From TrEMBL:
GO molecular function, one term: transferase activity
Matching InterPro entries: Aldolase_TIM (IPR013785), Class-I_DAHP_synthase (IPR052899), DAHP1/KDSA (IPR006218), DAHP_snth_FXD (IPR041071)
Listed name of the protein: 3-deoxy-7-phosphoheptulonate synthase
Keywords: Transferase
Amino acid sequence: MLLILHPHIDENSAAFQQTWAYLAALPNIRVQKHIVQGKAQRLTEIYLIGDTAKIDRELIEALPAVERVVRISEEYRILGRHKDERRAIGFEYNGIQFDQDRLHIFAGLCAVDTKENVEAMLKALSAQGQRCTRMGAYKPRTNPYSFQGHGKGCLPYTFELAGKYGIKVIAMEVTHEDHVEQIDTCLEQTGRPTGVMLQIGTRNTQNFELLKAIGRQAKYPVLIKRGYGIPLTESLNAAEYLASEGNANVIFCLRGMHSSFAAPHRNLVDFAQIPVVKRLTRMPVGIDPSHSIGGRDRSPDGLLDLFHATAQGVIAGANLILVDFHPEPLKALVDGPQALRLEELPHFLEDVQIAREAYEKRRRLAKTAMTI
């Protein structure tokens, strides 16, 4: 059972204290509080977990702090929609709103290699009016002898340069809870010139202890990728692990499915499931075309396969795009063959805009058709 309290309620108020005391006394019920900070208002949601079938809904609705009550299903208890379209969707972080209506592009280096390349990338993004990027400091690799990333050593100049060029959010993969502490410490030491969205890679989608640890912190939002060759439902439950520990500021990212049927691409593109995730959950949905395609092959129409895959995701309603760029792809230490060149950035952004306009037009048409 989900309780949505009156907006902006003060937790020190008599109404909140009376409501909380009543809920805490319910037998065989665990009470869990979540704060949802939207762009216009701050909402408090309280989840009653346990044997809620015997709870009198009318008594709960009569509590002074409660605005309304929602019966929720077993799956995706916190992140699910539960047939309630009035609940807040998305979150704001460092001045940027993330939800199921907006689209943000996180173009950048799959792995930070040099300070010069970081600056070249951020300078190019700034010139195009972009405020988000991806920068890999910690890189899990299949081969133990492959480049694993510079780790905390590259954080100071990456964060300082992001601030210099007006980048508000950096998507950065973490593979251990210590990495979150390193990021937080470095941001504090550099004066917090930018923000970080913690990224859970496909290999760690079922690292449940890592998910719990990252879910327990509420300072940084989380981008979680679909698991490596597992069903969609299992990956969505991985996202629920984050929310169940307290952090519901989560974006779900499709990155292609590991399959022998994907060839010649790296993974089988699964972007048709964007509307499925939106229907089942309140999470914004991202795509990673770079790791889906894994190369720079060009079709006879002149467009790179990566452009085509990106457009497929955007026209299906994607809210975020992770895409690899590099000043010199042939010299990149990670995934150079799939990285786009900096001079291709304006073309990529314009192509995305064309697909986005098509999606908006389709959405307007659908609303018109529904009224007929």
